[in-house]
Amino acid sequence: MKVIVCGAGQVGFSIARHLAAEDINVTVIDKSPELIRRIGDSLDVQAMVGYASHPHVLERAGAADADMIIAVTYADEVNMVACQVAHSLFNVPTKIARVRHQSYLQPIWADLFSRDQLPIDVIISPEIEVARAISRRLQAPGAFDMIPLADGKIRVIGVRCTNDCPILDTPLRELTELFPDLNIVVVGIIREDRPFVPTSDQVMLPGDDVYFVVDSDHVARGMAAFGHEESEARRVVIAGGGNIGLYLAQEIEAHHPGVTAKVIEMDSDRAEHIAQMLPRTLVINGDALDPEILDEANVQAAETIVAVSNDDEVNILSSLLAKRSGCKRAVTLIKNMAYEPLITTLGVDVVVSPRAITVSTILQHVRRGRILSVHSLREGFGEIIEAEALETSSLIGAPLRKIKLPKGVIVGAILRAGEVIIPRPDTVVSVGDRVVVFATERTVKKVEKMFAVRLEFF
């Protein structure tokens, strides 16, 4: 498989790193010699300086025999033209482009990206993806991450263990006996910034970040087992009225009728613009770092503040100010992930990374065939993979305890005929089952082979 990545920024670097780790032939193009030098020194990829939309540059990158182009430069127009050139001149089968400007994404212009116009197979809008991810986190108060799978019937939840967690110091193999109604599978633990896949003898400690798989109908029960029984937020303050803040407010208005949102936006023209687009949302023109503005937004009575401005420092400080005023929970957008270990110790509850969300969305389209969805867990840790079990799969026909799964792979859940099955050692996977698996980064290729997946493209 050969992939061309246009753009060597944070997203392009992360995509190239993921693909290179799986021995995929990757070529990265960027106009910045500095970024190309960094990516060439860090990753086992081909890196070249040039404008990604220029035909001769794509030709040098090997577009003639490329399987996919992923255009994630900072310029929407470069991304779109690169896909057009890749299609028209080199017949590249799959074209993915990051498009940020919302004018291109209006429903009335939907035909723009048809095969006869701008033939882009997948359009990624980071702002929309981030807003949706935050909306999902609001539905699971107490969780720092929440991923829906199998048509919403299965959830992957990320929670932090506090001193009040009832299942601390309990070996994972004993959870089923001690809590017979607790149908979860713990698939990953991050302890002191070190991620690992737990064995059945390991225990959870205060401060651990834990990922578990659960039937969607049992989310509240699973959260309670970790000591999180927070009620869903009914009053939300959004600091930042950019595209992410606007989309989040629109999502709340459209899908959460019982939730009241307020938006704080610094720019007066932008505040007036979004106020016209949000009939049920109060928009306040002011600085989210101003205590009087926070007081006007009644942040002390809000369950959650969501800080999504374009400035990491503003997001961090406004979150901490809101919590000091009495707001119960802070969801904070951070572009520079070097801040993450610091701000979680200061009291920020949920860190949202646009880069991680965008990369995870793109990876879903890289793995085709019987792999239905892919979600990255933490940078470099691993992936949650949802796949259909084929007749040729090594999972079929034997109890899980007899199947030699690769080290670092855990079966988290099975969906069979609409019923969620939380796997136990004697569970047998059947043909046609939708299986949710966690795989560390180095075992992803083994999981693809385990499901007899062939990378095919549309």
Q: How large a portion of the residues is in β-strands, by DSSP E?
A: 25-35%
Task: Tell me about the largest β-sheet.
Answer: 6 strands, parallel
CATH class of the largest domain: Alpha Beta
CATH-derived architecture of the largest domain? 3-Layer(aba) Sandwich
**What's the multimeric state?**
single chain
Q: How many whole angstroms does the radius of gyration measure?
A: 23 Å
Please indicate the count of domains: 3
For the termini, the CA-CA separation is 14 Å
How many helical stretches? 15
Spans of at least 5 consecutive residues with low confidence: 453-458
Instruction: Spell out the CATH superfamily of the largest domain.
Output: NAD(P)-binding Rossmann-like Domain
Q: Can you count the beta strands?
A: 22
Provide the structure class: alpha/beta
**Order of strands side by side in the largest beta sheet?**
3-2-1-4-5-6
**CATH fold-level name of the largest domain:** Rossmann fold
Arithmetic mean pLDDT: 89
Question: Any chance you could write out the topology, listing elements then pairs?
Answer:
Blueprint: E1 2-6, H1 10-20, E2 25-30, H2 33-42, E3 46-49, H3 55-60, E4 68-71, H4 76-90, E5 94-98, E6 122-124, H5 126-139, E7 143-149, E8 154-160, H6 175-178, E9 184-191, E10 194-196, E11 209-215, H7 219-225, E12 235-239, H8 243-255, E13 260-265, H9 268-277, E14 282-285, H10 291-296, E15 304-307, H11 312-325, E16 329-333, H12 340-346, E17 350-352, H13 354-366, E18 371-377, H14 378-381, E19 382-388, E20 409-416, E21 419-421, E22 434-440, H15 444-450
